[in-house]
Amino acid sequence: MQTQENFLTAAEAIVFDIDYRKKITDSIANYETAFEKGLQQFSNLELARERAAFIKWKVLENLDKYLIEFEASVMRRGGKVIWAHDIETAQNEIGQIINRTHAKSVVKSKTMVGEEIGLNDFLRKKGVVVHETDLGEFIVDQANEPPFHIVTPAMHKSRSDIARLLNEKIGSSLDADAAEMSDDVRKELRDKFVKADIGITGANFLIADSGMVAITENEGNARLSFSFPKTHIVIAGIEKVIPTINDLDLFFPLLASYGTGQKLTTYNSIVGPKNIDDDGSVGEFIVMLIDNGRSNLLAQGEQRQALGCIKCGACLNVCPVFKNIGGHTYGTVYTGPIGAVTTPHTNGMNEFKHLSYASPLCGKCTDVCPVKIDLHNHLSRNRRDSVASGTAKSGEKIMWFTWKKMMLGRKTLNKGTSIKNFMLKQFFKTSWGERREFPKLSEKSFNQSWRERFGQ
Ligand code: SF4
Asked: What is the pLDDT of residues 259-302, one digit of tens each?
C-alpha cells in the first residue's frame, strides 16, 4: 500500500511543476518529429510489425526450448551461461566473478536489468569502482538518480541542468553545448575503458542458434566496454532471446525507428566469446540470464505477450499519464504502459496493482507498439486479475457491492438526486481528490426522462 500512496503523492507534485513538465514535453516533441521520419523507411510498416509480433509470440510460446538452445550455442563457442532466478542469485554470482578475478573496476553500458538487480549499489558496496559509460546513464548516475526513461535516462534534464551537474562533477564549462559536454564525458571515460577489469553490458537480443548477443547503441561505449576488459559479463532478461541472426534484419531497424527515430542505431554489435587476446590469453564471456519474476508473467496466458517488449520506449512517449507524471513517479524500473502491465506480475500484484489503474485506457500505447503488444487491454486484464486475487481493500469491496445493489434496483435508481449525489461523494471522497469538482447527477432519473420523452 505504501507504494500506491507514494505514487499518488509524487504524481500530484509533478503535475503542478510546470518547469519539469515543459522539459518532458520538449523532449517528447523532439522524439515525435524524429519518430515520424524514422517510420518512413518501412515500405510496409504493418507487415514489419506483424512479423515482429509473430517472432516474439513464437519465442514466448517456446521459451524453454530457445533458452536451452542459446545456452548450448554459447557453451559451444567457449562462453558460459549463468541462470539467475532472482536478484540475490544474480548479485551472488556477480560477486563470485568479482572475487575470482580480483576486479577493482567495472565499465558498464546501459542495462535496465542492471537497475533491476541493483547492480551499481551492490558493486560499490563491494568496493568496486563502477563507471557508467552511456552518456544518459552517466548523467543520472552523477546526479544519484535512477533512469527517467528506458531509452533516454536523462530526458527530464535540460541542457543547463546537465551543464551545471557536469561543471560540478567533471569541470565542464557552464556554457558548454551538447557536443562539448559529450566530449568532456568522453575524455573523462576514455582511460577507464582501458583500465577496467570487467565490462558489463546488457543485451538487446540473445541469438539462440549462434549463441551471440546483439547490442545496439549510439555512442560506441558498449563496444568499448566489452572490447577492452578481459571479462565481459552480459546481463539479460530471459525474454530477450530471438531464434536466429536473420531476425535482426527486422528487429534492428524497428528498435531504431521506434526508440529514437533513426533508420538504424549508430553501432550494432553482435558479440560472443572472445578470441585469443594480444597477450595470448583468452577473455571470458559470461551471459547471465535473469528471471526475476518473468516466469510469473510467462504463466499468465494473456499478459505473457508483454514479455515480447523490445524496450523501444515508444509507448511511454505517447502515454498521456507518463507525459504528465514522468518516469520517477512510478517508483519502478520499467515505467509507462509497459511497466504498468508487467510490474504487478514480476514484483507483486498487491503492491503494484495501482499502476494498472493509472491509465485512461486510451489505447495509444497499443497503437504505437512495434511488436503489437495489446497494452491497454492487458491493463484491463490486470485490473480484473487484481480484483480476482482478492487484494482490493475492504472499503472498496463494500463500495462496489453497494453500488451494484443500487444499480440493479429500479427503486434505488429512481431515488432523489440529493441522496444519490451524497452517496457518490461518500464513495469517491478520497479517490476523486480535492482539486477536481465533483460532477453533479442530473435532477431527473433516467426513468423520468424516458417517460417524458416517449410517454411510456
Ligand atoms: S511495449 Fe511496445 S512500445 Fe512499449 S517499450 Fe515495449 S516494444 Fe516499445
From this structure: 999 999 999 999 998 765 666 677 899 999 999 999 999 999 99
Buried b (16+ CB within 10 A) or exposed e, 66-94: bbebbbebbeeeebebbebeebebbbebb
User: Of 248, 210, 262, 235, whose CA–CA distance to 113 is shortest?
Assistant: 235
The x, y and z cell numbers of residue 192, run together, are 577507464
The single residue listed with the C-alpha cell 507483486 is 348
Q: Say what the pLDDT of residue 435 is.
A: 77
Residue listed under C-alpha cell 566496454: 225
* Cell numbers that stand for 263 in this block: 533508420
Rounded to two decimals, the pTM is: 0.91
CA of 155 to the centre of ligand 1 (A): 18
* Torsion angle of the four alpha carbons 138, 140, 113, 102, in this order, in degrees rounded to the nearest 10: 50
Is the shortest distance between the CB of 368 and ligand 1 below 6 Å? yes
The CATH class, in words, for 41-292 is: alpha beta
* Degrees to nearest 5, angle at CA 294 with 290 and 298: 135
Find out whether the beta carbon of 238 lies less than 6 Å from any atom of ligand 1. Answer: no
Atom of ligand 1 nearest to the CA of 338: 1
Q: Counting atoms of ligand 1 from 1, which one is nearest the CA of 258? A: 8
Q: How many angstroms separate the CA atoms of 381 and 379, rounded?
A: 5
Tell me how far the alpha carbon of residue 287 lies from the centroid of ligand 1, in angstroms. Answer: 24
Rounded Cα distance between 264 and 245, Å, is 16
Residue 204 grid cell: 538487446
Q: What is the pLDDT of residue 276?
A: 59
Provide the 10 A C-beta neighbour count for residue 394: 7
Taking Cα atoms as reference points, which of 322, 298, 390 lies closest to residue 350? 390
Amino acid sitting at position 158: S
C-alpha angle 374-304-310 in degrees, rounded to nearest 5: 70
Q: Which residues contact 19 (CB under 8 A, 6 or more apart)?
A: none
Cα 300 to its chain centre, rounded Å, is 19
Cα angle: 68, vertex 70, 73; to 5 degrees: 110
Mean pLDDT of the chain: 93
Q: Domain segments of the chain: what residues?
A: 1-40+310-392, 41-292, 399-454
